[in-house]
Amino acid sequence: MSSSVLLMSMSLDGYIAGPNDRPGNPGGDGFMRLHEWYEGPDGEFGRPTGPDGEIWDDIQASGAVLVGRRTAEQVDYYGGSHHGVPVFVFSGRPAPESVPKSVTFVDDIANAMAQAKVAAGDRDVIVHGAYTAQKALEAGVLDELQIDQIPVLFGQGLRLFDVLPNRIELDVVKVIDTPAATHIRYRVRR
Amino acid sequence: MSSSVLLMSMSLDGYIAGPNDRPGNPGGDGFMRLHEWYEGPDGEFGRPTGPDGEIWDDIQASGAVLVGRRTAEQVDYYGGSHHGVPVFVFSGRPAPESVPKSVTFVDDIANAMAQAKVAAGDRDVIVHGAYTAQKALEAGVLDELQIDQIPVLFGQGLRLFDVLPNRIELDVVKVIDTPAATHIRYRVRR
Fold first, then answer.
1. Confidence tier at B60 by pLDDT (50, 70, 90)
2. Which residues of chain A have pLDDT under 70?
């Protein structure tokens, strides 16, 4: 069955981006520290060797990506598609002219998720971005969280979770324990 | 070799206490949710069955406890001793008259840790409390962190980690993965 899965690398103290996060400095100062686990043997982004690679495989097997506008802008809309699957952007403002036609802007989180799920078919929808994650949680349209917890205290930056209106119970689905990251997959309890 | 080990149960979103945390309501609303893993077979605080019990054993094997004043006050100074070992309270203000003589107040974090380590001998020093943890990290006197990460999004409350002056690298020492908690032990990299 298709699930919506938030996918984020987070420091132990809850940061997903460093300070000075802006276009031109995506993810802020030191952002790459949170994504070192996500490197292939050549040091570029790619399938990590060892158990960390399972997360990469899950992403490659997903059928659509739903992303917040801020994240989407910083990565230039993944050039129009993320590993060959359609991209949906959650944003209250209309799409700029320059955005590839393969990218769909939706201003309602439940509607955005519904469209992404249709596009994904029986595959998962990957969700990206802190604000989008919180809105999806609040709307009850996020099924799972894949948190790649990095052994570092960032000290400052942008947090994945700020204040939520309700307490939300989770179930631990799977833990992959490597020196680079503690990968924890949670399912939202309904 | 003796280590200082921060021991805290934390929600996935980084909270160690719920809202309305005050004397009379220690740990705030819903605090017990973060400590359900820490129950014996009778439902009272006690050694959990299964792998969670290893954390309990580590605590019992420690030789001193260093705790922040706020936490100490809320638990009435553990009645003067924590599992039979001495208690040190980090506080800028002098001890009130009512505090048991076995409890030592120290107003400097490095000095407090030094005294606790002497008392502990070759056993570990357990560290408790968010403010005390941050001060110990900043002063470079915290060796390890034992974070019992609970599968819940608390949404609000008191955070373990707020803003730190520096990025701090950690090494994952051990992960114990149970349905109740993901217990991660980190060592601070020097």
1. very high
2. none
Residue among B76, B143, B80, B87 at smallest CA distance from B112: B87
Q: What is the pLDDT of residues A128-161, one digit of tens each?
A: 999 999 999 999 999 999 999 999 999 999 999 9
What is d(CA A77, CA A81) in angstroms, rounded to the nearest whole number?
A: 7
Domain B4-177: state its class.
Answer: alpha beta
Strand bridging mode B158-159 / B144-150: unpaired
Residue B39, Ramachandran bin (φ over 0: left; ψ between -120 and 50: alpha; else beta): beta
The residues spanned by each domain of chain B are 4-177
> Average pLDDT in the B134-146 region?
97
Q: How many CB pairs under 8 A join A and B?
A: 99
* Stretch B126-150: mean pLDDT: 97
What tokens does A101 get? 């036609």
Give contacts of A147 with chain B, Cβ < 8 Å.
Answer: 12
Looking at domain A4-21+31-188, its CATH architecture is: 3-Layer(aba) Sandwich (3.40)
Most A CBs within 10 Å, among B34, B167, B182, to test the A interface: B167
**pTM (two decimals):** 0.95
